[in-house]
Design goal:
By secondary structure, the protein is mainly beta. It contains three helices and 21 strands. The strands form four sheets. The protein has a six-stranded antiparallel barrel with strand order 15-16-17-20-19-18. It has a six-stranded antiparallel beta sheet with strand order 9-10-12-8-7-21. A hairpin with a 2-residue loop joins strand 18 and strand 19. The radius of gyration is 29 Å and the shape is elongated. The two termini are 26 Å apart.
């Protein structure tokens, strides 16, 4: 749901085994013994340790800048406890390069160790600036915030999909422009609304309502703005409201046919407000009124998972293996059904029906 709207719909939350614990008072020893004093180390041993610290410290001063200039190095440290230099590297190839550099500097192998470690990455959130862009991140239009759904290739060009209500006018193409993360942080127009079909009346549409099968629109990228197709930002945890990004999900398939999802099917979304949430399908192909509007969305899917304002446009997917996912739809709203929070999505099959064929895979 967009941060400027709240969507609701009219579709009908120990036993401790106690064990006995006996406490005993600590008594003085009947024959107290004065603790033995630790003898002071010989003066020459202290001098030797000090000299060793100075020697390894001198190695560190010249080795750190030389080693950290090499590709694949992660960190350099003088571990005073062991009095050794410790270098972290990404792989065996980098380790070999470090050892060669240290040998050239005259650093004895006994004075250092090299360990394979994960690279250290700056932490970003779904609300930060992304170039190239990817699904699940914050976008800004007019005075409001939404979520970028997913990047696609379309016959009309490189684009992203978000909600129809994440445009200046829901239904109808009037050229809404988008910034990322906000136009205050970066005023660049990253994309312009290119296709947002009009809502229709009559036929299967209830009297007094305007209808569509998906709350979806397409925005065409500016030529100078980079985007990555087939990636969705992944946060550090599921169902915990984290928006801190921890790498990405990869879209390796997309479901262009399903409109009726089996009850209990586990689906996921990533949105700029509540992050990554996951839950089971509760209702499928539900005709849904949008609160305080004339909008009626046909054949939508309800999922028992967390959602909040600003999550509108979130990509919806099922996890197939590890970080590999299948794209199945786009989130547009949410509400409480039987006391359980649900997000509401338009199936990808219906997005494609209204916007045309898209390629969203990596």
């Amino acid at each position: 749901m967009g941060s400027h709207m709240v969507f609701e719909n009219n579709a009908s939350r120990l036993l401790i085994a106690a064990s006995a614990l006996t406490l005993f008072a600590c008594a003085d020893s009947p024959n107290p013994v004065e603790p033995m004093a630790t003898p002071a180390p010989p003066a020459d041993a202290s001098l030797a340790r000090s000299a060793a610290q100075d020697r390894v410290g001198a190695h560190f001063k010249k080795a750190s800048p030389a080693v950290m200039a090499l590709e694949g190095t992660v960190f350099a440290d003088h571990d005073e406890k062991s009095n050794k230099l410790v270098f972290g590297v990404e792989n065996d190839r980098a380790a070999a390069g470090v050892k060669r550099a240290l040998a050239a500097l005259g650093v004895p192998s006994a004075d250092y160790s090299v360990t394979i470690t994960e690279p250290i990455e700056q932490l970003v959130t779904l609300r930060d600036r992304f170039r190239p862009t990817q699904g699940g991140i914050q976008i800004h239009f007019g005075g409001f915030l939404c979520t970028m759904g997913f990047n696609v290739d379309h016959s009309a060009g490189r684009s992203f999909i978000t909600n129809s209500h994440c445009t200046n006018t829901q239904g109808g193409t009037e050229g809404t422009t988008y910034a990322q993360p906000t136009r205050f942080v970066d005023p660049t127009v990253i994309a312009t609304e290119a296709d947002d079909p009009e809502y229709f009346k009559g036929g299967i549409c209830p009297r007094g309502k305007i209808c569509r099968f998906s709350d979806a629109s397409r925005a065409a990228y500016a030529p100078t703005v980079a985007s990555t197709r087939g990636e969705i930002a992944k946060t550090t945890g599921v169902n915990d409201n984290s928006i801190t990004v921890d790498r990405s999900f990869t879209i390796d398939s997309q479901d262009n046919t399903t409109t009726h999802f089996e009850s209990g099917t586990i689906l996921n979304k990533v949105g700029r407000t509540s992050g990554w949430s996951q839950g089971g399908v509760t209702m499928t192909c539900v005709n849904t009124n949008v609160f305080r509007s004339r909008v009626h969305q046909l054949c939508q899917t309800f999922v028992a998972a967390n959602v909040a304002g600003g999550d509108s446009g979130s990509p919806v997917f099922r996890i197939t293996h590890g970080n590999k996912v299948e794209l199945v739809g786009i989130l547009w709203g949410g509400g409480s059904v039987g006391g359980v929070v649900n997000f509401v999505m338009s199936p990808l099959s219906q997005v494609v029906q209204e916007l045309g064929a898209v390629t969203a895979t990596n």
